[in-house]
Amino acid sequence: MTTPSSDPGLYETIHKRRDVRAQFTGEPVDLEILTRVLGAAHSAPSVGLSQPWDFIVIDDQAIKQKFWEHVQDERQAFSDSLDAERARVFAGIKIEGILESSVSIVVTYDPSRGAPSVLGRYTIADAGLFSVCLAIENLWLSVTAEGWGMGWVSFYREPFLRDLLSIPETIRPVGWLCVGPVTHLEETPDLERAGWRTRRDLEKAMHWNGWN
Amino acid sequence: MTTPSSDPGLYETIHKRRDVRAQFTGEPVDLEILTRVLGAAHSAPSVGLSQPWDFIVIDDQAIKQKFWEHVQDERQAFSDSLDAERARVFAGIKIEGILESSVSIVVTYDPSRGAPSVLGRYTIADAGLFSVCLAIENLWLSVTAEGWGMGWVSFYREPFLRDLLSIPETIRPVGWLCVGPVTHLEETPDLERAGWRTRRDLEKAMHWNGWN
User: Fold this and answer.
1) What angle do CA A38, A39, A42 make, to 5 degrees?
2) Under 8 Å CB-to-CB from A94, ≥6 apart: which residues?
3) Considering Cα of B93, then B98, then B104, then B106, what sign does the dihedral take?
4) Which terminal residue of chain A has fewer beta carbons within 10 Å of its beta carbon, N or C?
5) What is the DSSP string of chain B?
6) Which residues of B135-147 are buried (b: 16+ CB within 10 A; e: fewer)?
7) Do A14 and B55 touch (CB under 8 A)?
8) Domains of chain B, with CATH numbers?
9) Residue B189 to residue B180: CA distance in whole angstroms
10) Which of A5, A6, A11 is most worth mutating to test chain B (most B CB atoms within 10 A of its CB)?
């Protein structure tokens, strides 16, 4: 791993991190920083040390444009599923920064990595998929620590994305992540600022020795 | 959030983090620290700001004992599925620290949180489950930053765990995590030290503008 010029605190980074849509500057990314944040993702825990992830970095504008068009269709489909009041709130919410962000990173899951006997995946088939998500959170935090931003786009159909990037049938795309320098990070999540939803108190999420 | 006495660097924490089995001391945990690490988990990104996770903290020894016995059965089942050489290596690997660790934390997923119209989950049903995993990684890193350790146990059947903790049918347990103070963290993952598997080079996981 290359050493970062500074290493902000973990808690500081966790609380600073946002799901970014509107603040990307689009500046070219420094390859050393990009490699370092992918190295942080690659250092995530994984079931049976399977490291079942891959990272497809996308800076080709034509590919981004095709994906962006697909996302607009899926945005419309979601909007059409809402009642009038929710559709009105949703209309004011930006859901992606695909074209404005410097690069996109598609993270994939390969169930065959380390198979057939992945230690810890014997009873829970999804455990490998869970590992990929742990890597994504490491990526999100390290991007934040670098002063960049990241936004997870999930308004897409997996077969479309697989086809767009020639991803084999056996590999599952898990997320399309917009990544790059930002002007700033907001203090409050976009969806809360837009009046879509408020955050839940931690106390309500804590239970002791059983569900009740 | 209560302020930690120190806030170690993000990269430092990512690279220090291990999947802990053998190093737990079993000391009682400080409730302020426990609340702080759960607060870090609760600050994770989530699809549509749904925060679909719950945290069940378990310090009841009888519950831990029952779960431990179940895990031994599943360990044996996995061992029986291996060829002789892999079974020999597996026999030397400790897969959990359920009884030795101070507390266990079961993290669950509630698909009904924010439903029916979870923003960003319209095309990818698993997106809520992915959010829960992001919270688990925040927990893992903050536990590490506190000088504690964490180990994810996945040798169990979900219906058994749901029954053990009276988790409703609609809620999915995602992981059983052993948490608490440790004597130290190893520098190399247990499975690598045991000769089960070696880590993959980051370069092999990186792709540009498509799979190939």
Assistant:
1) 85
2) A21, A22, A190
3) positive
4) C
5) -PPPS---BHHHHHHH--B-SS-B--PPPPHHHHHHHHHHHHTS--GGG---EEEEEE--HHHHHHHHHHHHHHHHHHHHHS-HHHHHHHHT-----TTTSSEEEEEEE-TTTT-S--TT-SS-TTHHHHHHHHHHHHHHHHHHHTTEEEEEE--S-HHHHHHHTT--TTSEEEEEEEEEEBS---SS-HHHHTTS--PPPHHHHEEESS--
6) bbbbbbbbbbbbe
7) no
8) 12-183 (3.40.109.10)
9) 18
10) A11
In order along its 212 residues, chain A shows pLDDT tens digits of 566 778 999 999 999 999 999 999 999 999 999 999 999 999 999 999 999 999 999 999 999 999 999 999 999 999 999 999 999 999 999 999 999 999 999 999 999 999 999 999 999 999 999 999 999 999 999 999 999 999 999 999 999 999 999 999 999 999 999 999 999 999 999 999 999 999 999 999 999 999 98
**CB atoms A10 and B145 under 8 Å:** yes
Q: Which string of DSSP letters, residue by residue, matches B131-176?
A: HHHHHHHHHHHHHHHTTEEEEEE--S-HHHHHHHTT--TTSEEEEE
**Residue B210 to residue A127, Cβ atoms within 8 A:** no
**A114 and B197 Cβ atoms separated by less than 8 Å:** yes
